[in-house]
Specification:
The protein is mainly α and 282 residues long. The chain has helices at 2-14, 17-33, 38-54, 58-71, 75-96, 99-114, 118-131, 137-148, 152-165, 170-180, 185-198, 203-217, 221-228, 232-239, 241-252, 256-260, 264-276.
Length: 282
C-alpha cells in the first residue's frame, strides 16, 4: 500500500487526479489483504479524498476523509477534513440563499414585532438572514427584538453586523448607541456622532448625543476617564505610537502643545481626549 500511495503522490503532483484515485484504490485492496498498518491505509484514503476535492467533488472527498479518520485520527487529516466540512457548509448556505423568501420571512417578523410578539419574531428574522446573509435589515430588526427582551449582548452583535454590512444605515448606529448609553455614555456619544455624520438633522441622534453629553457632565473626572477608557475610539488614540510620543512631550513641555495642535488630525484626537476626561488642561 505504501508503494501505491507513493505512486498516487506522483500522479497528484502531475494533476492526474483520476489516476490518483485509481492507483490508491488498488493499493488499498492490496493493503487490506496484507493487513497493512492502519496509518498507511488512512494516508491512502486521505489522498483519494484530496484527489476528489481537486476534481470538485466535495461529497466524495468528505466520504473518504471520514473513512480515513476511522483508520487513524491523524492531526493533518483532521485539519484537511475540517476544511472540507467548512466548504460543504458554505455550499449549503449558498444554495439556501433566496432573497425573495428572505423578504417574506422578514415581513412575517415585522408583523409579529408590531403585535409586540418579539420572541416570536426572532426566528423569522433569523430565517431571513439565512436566506439573504448580505441584507443588513433583518439584523437591525432582530436587534430591536433582542433589546425589547433585554438580551443586550445579542442585540449588540446584531447591531455590529448590521453596521458591518451597511455602514451607511443610520438605524444600526441608533440602535447600538441606545444600548451603550445605558452605562457607557462616552462610547454611545461616539456612535451618535457617527450617526450624525450620516444625517446631521436626525432628531433621535441629536437627542441621544445631547443626553450623553449631559450624562458625562454629571460624572466625576475619575468616572469620566474610567468610562472613556472603554471607548474603542479612545483606546485606538491612546495606542497610536505617534500620539503617545506627542502626549509625553506635552506633559514634559506644555508649550509643545501649540506646535503639535497645528496638525488638524492631532488636534481632533487631542480634543477627544480632553472631552473624555483622559487629558486635562491646566
Amino acid at each position: 500500500v505504501s508503494t501505491q500511495s507513493t505512486g498516487g503522490a506522483v500522479h497528484f503532483e502531475k494533476g492526474e487526479y483520476a489516476e490518483v484515485i485509481s492507483v490508491c484504490t488498488k493499493g488499498l485492496d492490496v493493503g487490506r489483504e496484507q493487513r497493512a498498518d492502519y496509518k498507511h491505509i488512512a494516508k491512502s484514503l486521505s489522498r483519494i479524498a484530496k484527489a476528489h476535492l481537486k476534481l470538485g467533488d466535495l461529497d466524495s472527498a468528505m466520504t473518504f476523509y471520514d473513512k480515513a479518520i476511522t483508520e487513524n485520527r491523524d492531526a493533518v487529516i483532521l485539519k484537511e477534513r475540517a476544511e472540507v466540512v467548512k466548504q460543504v457548509k458554505e455550499r449549503e448556505a449558498k444554495a439556501y440563499i433566496d432573497p425573495a423568501k428572505s423578504t417574506e420571512e422578514k415581513n412575517k417578523g415585522n408583523e409579529l414585532f408590531k403585535q409586540g410578539k418579539y420572541a416570536d419574531a426572532i426566528p423569522f428574522y433569523t430565517e431571513a438572514i439565512k436566506r439573504n446573509p448580505q441584507d443588513h435589515v433583518p439584523h437591525s430588526n432582530r436587534a430591536a427584538c433582542y433589546t425589547k427582551l433585554m438580551e443586550f449582548g445579542l442585540a449588540m452583535e446584531d447591531c455590529n453586523k448590521c453596521i458591518e454590512l451597511n455602514p451607511g444605515f443610520i438605524k444600526g448606529y441608533l440602535r447600538k448607541a441606545a444600548l451603550l448609553k445605558i452605562d457607557k455614555p462616552t462610547e454611545a456619544k461616539s456612535v451618535y456622532e457617527r450617526a450624525l455624520e450620516i444625517d446631521p438633522k436626525n432628531a433621535e441622534a441629536q437627542q441621544g448625543y445631547q443626553h450623553c453629553v449631559n450624562q458625562m457632565r454629571n460624572l466625576s473626572p475619575e468616572e469620566r476617564a474610567k468610562n472613556a477608557m472603554m471607548d474603542p475610539e479612545i483606546q485606538q488614540i491612546l495606542k497610536d505610537p505617534a500620539m503617545q510620543v506627542i502626549l509625553e512631550q506635552m506633559q514634559k513641555d506644555p508649550t509643545a502643545a501649540q506646535e503639535h495642535l497645528k496638525n488638524p488630525q492631532v488636534a481632533e484626537k487631542f480634543q477627544k481626549l480632553v472631552q473624555s476626561g483622559i487629558v486635562s488642561i491646566r
